[in-house]
Amino acid sequence: MARLNNELFCKLGDLSVDGYFIFEPEQQNFLYLNKSFGEIWELELDQVFANPQMIMENIHPEDLQHVKSCYEECLEDRTEKKYEFRLMFPGREKYVRIIIYAIEEGRLMVGTVEDITVMRHNKIHIEQINARKNITLEVLAHDLKEPLGMMKLTASSMEDGIAQTGDVQMMNSLAFIKDMCERNLLLVRSMINREFLKSSVIEIGKERADLVWELRDVVRFYKRSKLGKTKNIKFTCSAEQIYLHLDSMKFLQVINNLISNALKFTDDYGYIGIHAEELENTVLITVTDNGIGIPDELQPGLFDHLPETLRPGLKGEESGGFGMGIIKAIVDLHQGKIWFKSKTGVGTTFFIELPK
């Protein structure tokens, strides 16, 4: 039966656009490779059969240790595994997904390799668009708050004077201006809250990602906005690349929401810092500000949707009432932990620890 299965596997491989392989771990050699495997790796099959180790030369240097760990894990667990990593070629890189099985008591490893470069690039592009959309909404809310608030305040200050003239049409116009300002502020805030609320009801889909690249892109966007001129926003990290498995789009909503809260409760030209620290088995992300801090009486229920924990920002920004609860829910879905330290008048630091 094993021989029959191998023959069927090889026949499928000869017809497939995906790479097929059979590998002997003890002998460290390939028993079978189909034509598509060589095309994906951009190597001649005769060369790979003669020197199996040469396939390691095309693996992206940043992913090399990851691939070695995956190989050891597959040998140890002897269950179906799916991995993604990059191949490196002059001036370009290629994303591949490998599905691998250890069979016959681990004496053979069989599997398929798929070129997912186009799909991966499209996914990254979509995630960037979504992340920047959320950031843009936050920036828009902050940028509109001041002019709309000033318009509302000006209309209010004019009301007493106009009331004395008895000009009903002008009074109605001022009431209309105030109402429109309030409506538009609530509209922008509800859009942000609705987008963030979706994260609590959508299943998480984790993939290996470079956290440093993701966080740097978020901070860069904020610094280029008007908010970057009124706040000192800084990103630091312990390494140029930190890889871990996460749902990038949802996790960036967590970071975006924490930065947004820091902006609300930090005076103009205050400091907001984002730091990523790679530890032995986990990664620690911190979002720090030197704002007004969280009063002691509000801290116990901060993640519990309690109405008494809600408060407006320094410029009257509204609170959605569920942001912190969803932040914790998303971190929990990543098997992570979140906590904070805060002191009134000194500032607040949120800590997020995620497994690698």
UniProtKB/TrEMBL annotation:
It is found in: Membrane. This is histidine kinase. It is a multi-pass membrane protein. GO terms for cellular component: membrane. Residues 139-356 form the Histidine kinase domain. Keywords: ATP-binding, Kinase, Membrane, Nucleotide-binding, Transferase, Transmembrane, Transmembrane helix, Two-component regulatory system. PANTHER family: SENSOR HISTIDINE KINASE GLRK (PTHR42878:SF7), TWO-COMPONENT HISTIDINE KINASE (PTHR42878). Its EC number is 2.7.13.3.
